[in-house]
Design brief:
The structure is a homodimer.
Chain A lengths: L7 H11 L7 H16 L5 H10 L1 H9 L4 H8 L7 H11 L5 H14 L2 E3 L21 E5 L10 E5 L6 H16 L3 E4 L5 H11 L4 E5 L12 H10 L1 E4 L9 H13 L3 E4 L8 H11 L3 E3 L10 H9 L3 E2 L3 H8 L18 H9 L8 H8 L3 H13 L3 E4 L2 E4 L1
Helix pairs in contact in A: 1-2, 1-7, 2-4, 2-7, 3-4, 5-6, 8-9, 8-14, 9-10, 11-12, 15-16, 16-17
């Protein structure tokens, strides 16, 4: 390990502290250190970084950056697998270089270890496979506080997101849906924000199920500060996950990029309550782009905080979901089945409807009178009266038929 | 005119009383009388009656029925245009014969005339063209109380329907949508029931626009009785329309069949509020079957009276509509346009978002510090700061940049 001119033992100590159960051969350690470095060097969603790491390997790409190699050397190292050109690599080098600092990477690893957080990498058993659907925008590493197994839960996971300034109605729906999903074995994914996110996490915790919070800053940051205890409980029963290393603060950009992880690491995304410009619509947009089933909970048309959900129903073909059952169907890819009863309006046989319509509970009516009233053939009236009499719904008196 | 052995002058008087502005040659009168007779003879939606009237003509078919002709003669008279076989014709004859009564037809015509109602037939200028989309189930005649021009209004018409036991929310939405549609030049079609229907009619009347009520019994019947005044006002500014002649009472069967007329005679159908088994879902089913655009107004997922609307959104691909504007778009066939902004989350340039995130309103920060914080190339930071400074959103102090 020559990168950053760091002592190999220091690198190994830092990496194994944050990855205590992972292979510690030199190659594995070097690669993990380089991935940690890339999570420090670039902002989330940097597609050029994704490309060079995929084509050259994280440690080779890091060496090239440290050596101040010209773009052509990067392209050569990529061996034709690099989709981007020299200009994009040059722009990347300019972006990444200001953050080159060995201390930053070591500190990210040791801060994580001190907190009990882990560095999780592609190829690890705990790596959430859905994240790879982001392609060149996939995270290069994830920092996880809590239970690693929560990232790829056996029962599947559903994102339940929504507005920070939720209404009592929205919170009620978030609790119903997230609690019900927990009861059905799903993990509940959200963003740990005030309002709908918090209600969803709390409902999952209340039924003692796994819940995962993707946060926009480092996992050491309690954001919002009022959710410090909630984040600790989420980490105890599930996981708090960040793409940025410890110490990173949440920014608007990082919130938007964090949203893509919520969508990618869930089987379906449900927006419970959202204004027309809510950030949760951005999460919905990522879900749609990734082909994840997208649901929206309807609310009063008069509520500004349901306008975003209605926009998803109207313009983005989101499924209308009103219960945990319906969300579970959405996540399992079961399309709602059309009920053939809509046109019938009632389950009764149409002839029976017409005969019952024509009967009175008091005045007895003869069969020929019923034929005239119903517009049915006398034979049909007779057969229908017979069936209805068997069911106890009509009876024959001395002067004709009455409704029972 | 030999049918029913009626005097020709009596037939002519009866017909011209109910069709004062229509041609009164013998053929026209005979055909109109026969159509009136068929509206007495069969229940709404009788497809076999529709077939024989289309294939043989209304008066020839009526003569055959009066002559007690065997089914083969009907098939011969249809000249190969009849889709049904002898068995179906025989069953039809059995259904229709019990109601054969000359008095019934004459009384239907004279009762209508006494009320000022008109008999409207296919081919009349006032005939609503949408009704023909029902094919063999199209009405054979319509009885209209009010303004004939209301049946085919120049601005188009939209059905606004829903539950009888509506909530204040549902009525509010019906008023907003129906009133707004009226303001936009649409006629409002509904079923004159309590609840949503009444709110829709009243809202259209309040903005002095045309509204049309399709009723399940005769136009002389006030049903529900509490809507006698409302029906009179609807007839004054629009029309009350029935498929059944005066004197006919509304039955469950006739309500269901009436719903197909509401759907057929509108450019779009909107369900405002409906329980899971509301009759308005039957209207929605007809709209879907006819290919009419179908909208549903969302409501709280916790409201049993919105469950039917949510079912339409979820299972029947109804459009989610929350305002008169959205309903008008639906009726005009304008698909909602996908806004490209959903994934962006905000209109700002992403670099500007990141630079603004990294700036403080108090502590000045140097450009290289901003490059490190944003993860952007120093060049990009400099260019972005320049643009933001032009917009007055950042300013440079002696020690660096601050957010304005």
């Amino acid at each position: 390990m020559t990168v950053y001119q760091l002592d190999a033992a220091m690198v190994r100590d830092a990496v194994t502290a944050a990855r205590p159960d992972s292979p510690d051969d030199e190659e594995a350690v070097s690669s993990a250190f380089a991935r940690a470095a890339w999570s420090v060097l670039c902002e989330p969603g940097d597609g050029v970084a994704g490309d060079v790491v995929a084509a050259c390997g994280a440690d080779r790409a890091l060496s090239l950056l440290l050596e101040r190699a010209d773009p052509q050397r990067w392209l050569d190292a990529g061996g034709g697998r690099l989709d981007v050109g020299a200009a994009e690599v040059a722009a990347g080098i300019e972006r990444w270089s200001p953050r080159l600092s060995a201390r930053g990477v070591v500190s990210a690893l040791t801060s994580a270890a001190r907190l009990g957080a882990r560095l999780v990498l592609p190829g690890d058993a705990a790596w959430p496979s859905g994240a790879d659907d982001l392609g060149r925008h996939a995270p290069l590493a994830l920092w996880v506080r809590g239970r690693l197994a929560a990232l790829e839960p056996p029962g599947g996971s559903v994102a339940v997101v929504g507005s920070r300034d939720s209404t009592a109605y929205g919170e009620h729906m978030a609790i119903e849906i997230a609690g019900g999903l927990g009861d059905r074995g799903f993990s509940v994914v959200s963003g740990a924000a005030y309002g709908i996110d918090a209600a969803a996490h709390r409902a999952a915790l209340a039924v003692k199920r796994t819940t995962v919070a993707f946060v926009a800053g480092g996992v050491d940051r309690a954001y919002p500060a009022g959710h410090r205890d909630l984040l600790t409980r989420i980490a105890a029963y599930g996981a708090v996950v960040a793409e940025l290393p410890c110490g990173a603060s949440p920014t608007r950009w990082r919130f938007l990029q964090r949203n893509r992880l919520i969508a990618a690491c869930s089987q379906a995304v449900v927006v419970v309550e959202a204004g027309r410009r809510s950030g949760s619509l951005n999460t919905a947009g990522h879900a749609a782009a990734l082909g994840r089933p997208l649901g929206a909970v309807p609310g009063p048309a008069t509520s500004a905080l349901s306008a975003g959900c209605h926009r998803l129903l109207r313009e983005y073909d989101a499924a209308c979901v009103t219960s945990a059952d319906e969300v579970a169907e959405l996540a399992l890819g079961r399309l709602p089945t059309e009920q053939p009863t809509l046109l019938e309006g009632m389950a009764d046989d149409p002839d029976a409807v017409r005969v019952l319509d024509a009967l009175s509970p008091r005045s007895a009516r003869a069969a020929d009178e019923l034929a005239r009233r119903t517009g049915l053939a006398p034979r049909t009236v007779a057969a229908t009266l017979g069936l209805l009499a068997l069911g106890g719904r009509v009876r024959e008196s001395a002067t004709g038929w009455v409704r029972a």
